[in-house]
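Comment thread on ticket #2218

A.B. wrote:
> Attaching the input chain for the structure job we discussed in standup.
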Amino acid sequence: MQAIGRAARHRVRALSHGSTSSSWPSCQIRSLAVEPGSREKLLLEEDPALKKFKSDKETVKLIKRIGDILVLSVVAGSVYEIYYRMQNRKAVQTLGSLSNGKPS
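C.D. wrote:
> Ran it. Output below, let me know if you need it in another format.
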């Protein structure tokens, strides 16, 4: 603890004793003491020029579904390729042992 600065030790102590003055949930709750100004109100309004850049939930779901199908098809193709190669290897080994005169 000696390497930690005095402020850091105080913060660790405050957090360990359950102080919520600077903890995460209390930082999210924000109350305004005064009415927001005109600039803040303009910034909080919805901008029609940016509307075309927003994603539609249905479109996002469709893209995710297409991605899932592509992933499944690649995995299925890879598994089939491994199975096919193993079958070919087994067939080559069987033919090789038959040509040598040794049954497997």
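A.B. wrote:
> Thanks. Noting for the ticket: The first helix runs from residue 6 to 16.
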